[in-house]
User: Which sequence fits this backbone?
């Protein structure tokens, strides 16, 4: 899945890490709920998470892009910034960024080595850290890197949920909850209110809270109640009902910067006068610099058909129905995406395939189903669901062949191509 790793030390550390429980790769219903392994590892490493200030971001969707925007705003204000993200699209180093760039392989190998050593000590002494998972080790490694790189701010994206997420041993200045949708219900709960309770677990006494969830919404009410209990002020950006995904993310990130400005955080830098942080830091070029791979990523591909035909391709790892619906609705506002679409689709076992596919019935989409490994639902099963929904589809097991087929079909028919349903699929296509 990852593109090639050059560093032998990093390969070895990752091989060791792969012996541990990796909930990104397993049914998550029996996931442990306990932060003691993380706390023990962090203690053994000198609590690196206390060396920098933190914006902590949870939510069903938009976390990654929102984190990248907050990171870009803080960097523009003159700070050294770390960002911790998941999952990665092309390469594991994307998960830990320093000043907007993925960390080097050797730096990641150093940190993983230290974290794995602490884990082995915990196993030998039979303390809490012996229960650490793959994500715990990676998370504490990110904290080590941020401390050694002397970042002033870290923007942390939760891996799953909030309350029991590995990142949640931190004390943040701002806790962000982007939105709440029904996902990972086997762990987080069956209602939006139950999921909101898990995500609101990142709110700490003394932090400010930023959320798009309205006060009157069942999930928004849970966030407000938790904030009130901890004496935290809640800020809600106002966004028009028809705002695009990007406009929503920018509104949240801008509000975070405003909140920090009100807390007295000032811009740094020799040239200009210092002023409070605020949404003005997110000018068009800063927003542009914060774009992530595989999130509404638009490219024009030259196909080999001599007349220099271009096919418009969109890569988006949407794997939740409401996110895919938003992606399709945003795209349909542009002329070139109103043509018919050929979608290359892979969906993981634990995702709502019927929900994702029924979202596609509202648009003129035909589908090529493919697979990207053990966690993908079988393309034949997906085709059966598509058939019952009246969607035209074929199956091509090899994702690169499926993509080539989509490009060829699009060249012939004037369609555009969407690669979606899985960030892993997007990573494979991008690498090619």
Assistant:
């Amino acid at each position: 899945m990852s593109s090639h790793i050059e560093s032998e030390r990093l390969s070895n550390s990752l091989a060791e890490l792969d012996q541990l429980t990796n909930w990104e790769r397993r049914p998550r219903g029996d996931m442990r709920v306990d932060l003691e392994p993380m706390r023990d590892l962090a203690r053994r490493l000198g609590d690196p998470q206390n060396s920098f200030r933190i914006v902590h971001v949870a939510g069903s969707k938009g976390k990654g892009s929102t984190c990248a925007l907050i990171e870009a705003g803080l960097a523009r204000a003159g700070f050294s910034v770390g960002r911790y993200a998941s999952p990665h699209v092309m390469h594991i180093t994307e998960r830990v960024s320093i000043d907007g760039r993925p960390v080097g392989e050797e730096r990641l190998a150093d940190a993983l080595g230290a974290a794995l050593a602490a884990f082995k000590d915990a196993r030998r002494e039979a303390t809490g850290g012996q229960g650490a998972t793959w994500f715990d080790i990676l998370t504490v490694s990110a904290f080590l890197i941020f401390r050694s790189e002397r970042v002033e701010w870290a923007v942390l994206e939760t891996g799953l949920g909030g309350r029991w997420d590995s990142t949640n041993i931190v004390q943040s200045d701002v806790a962000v909850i982007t939105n709440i949708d029904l996902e990972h219900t086997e762990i987080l709960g069956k209602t939006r209110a139950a999921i909101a309770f898990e995500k609101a677990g990142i709110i700490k006494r003394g932090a400010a809270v930023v959320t798009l969830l309205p006060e009157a919404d069942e999930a928004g009410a849970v966030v407000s109640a938790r904030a009130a209990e901890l004496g935290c002020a809640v800020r809600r950006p106002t966004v028009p009902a028809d705002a695009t995904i990007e406009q929503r993310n920018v509104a949240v990130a801008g509000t975070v910067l405003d909140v920090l400005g009100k807390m007295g955080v000032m811009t740094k830098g020799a040239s200009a006068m210092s002023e409070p942080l605020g949404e003005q830091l997110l000018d068009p070029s800063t927003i542009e610099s914060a774009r992530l791979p595989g999130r509404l990523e638009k490219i024009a591909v030259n196909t080999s058909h001599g007349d220099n035909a271009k096919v418009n391709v969109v890569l988006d790892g949407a794997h939740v129905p409401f996110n895919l619906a938003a992606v399709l609705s945003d795209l349909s506002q542009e002329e070139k995406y109103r043509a018919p679409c050929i979608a290359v689709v892979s969906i993981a076992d634990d995702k709502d395939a019927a929900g994702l596919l029924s979202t596609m019935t509202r648009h003129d989409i035909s589908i090529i189903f493919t697979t990207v490994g053990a966690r993908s639902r079988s393309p034949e099963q997906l085709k059966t669901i598509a058939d019952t929904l009246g969607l035209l589809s074929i199956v091509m097991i090899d994702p690169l062949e499926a993509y080539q087929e989509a490009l060829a079909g699009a060249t012939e028919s004037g369609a555009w191509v969407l690669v979606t349903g899985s960030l892993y699929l997007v990573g494979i296509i991008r690498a090619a």
